[in-house]
Specification:
- It is a single chain.
- The protein has one domain.
- It has 6 helices and no strands.
- It has helices at 2-29, 34-45, 66-89, 93-120, 132-153, 160-167.
């Protein structure tokens, strides 16, 4: 029954963050140039260092499977680092490439964490104070990875100055 409540919490989080994203986030980002739309998404993901909490005794149960804890913590710190690298290199082409690398890594890391948790037989109580990460934060991160991919795949019109010179 505990697993049911855990996954129900995750499901409701996806629904709530999906509504917030559709109503408030995407309408603000969709009209911005690529680099400007990516910046707030990358800033959000720069906080993924919080996944290091999976390695802190007392924050998590000593029974938390080490394979899950290490994979989730190190995957998150790599994702946070990649997000920061992309953020500082925008709006250059290297920044766009970095954003692709970040979002591919970051979304794969989150999906891998779900896989590792299932494979290790994780019980929600083993998460201790980090319970909020998979139930509140991970759904938001996955949704914003979807937005990041959407922004990266959008056609970027030429700046108005280039168009006016081309017409002259």
């Amino acid at each position: 029954m505990v697993q049911l409540w855990f996954f129900t919490s995750i499901g409701f989080s996806f629904i709530a963050w999906g509504i917030v994203t559709a109503r408030y986030v995407w309408p603000e980002l969709r009209l911005r140039p690529r680099a400007e739309a990516l910046r707030p998404l990358l800033m959000l993901h720069s906080f993924r260092f919080i996944g290091l909490a999976f390695l802190v005794p007392g924050v998590v149960s000593p029974d938390l499977p080490a394979t899950f804890a290490h994979s989730a913590a190190y995957g998150d710190i790599i994702a946070a680092t990649l997000a920061l690298l992309a953020l500082i290199s925008l709006p250059s082409a290297a920044g766009v490439v970095s954003a692709w690398i970040f979002s591919l890594w970051g979304s794969a890391d989150l999906l891998n964490a779900f896989y590792q948790a299932n494979r290790a037989g994780l019980v929600p109580g083993q998460l201790g104070a980090t319970y909020f990460i998979p139930t509140l934060v991970v759904p938001l991160l996955l949704i914003t990875h979807g937005l990041t991919f959407r922004v990266l795949m959008q056609h970027q019109p030429k700046p108005a100055m280039q168009e006016s010179r081309h017409l002259a």
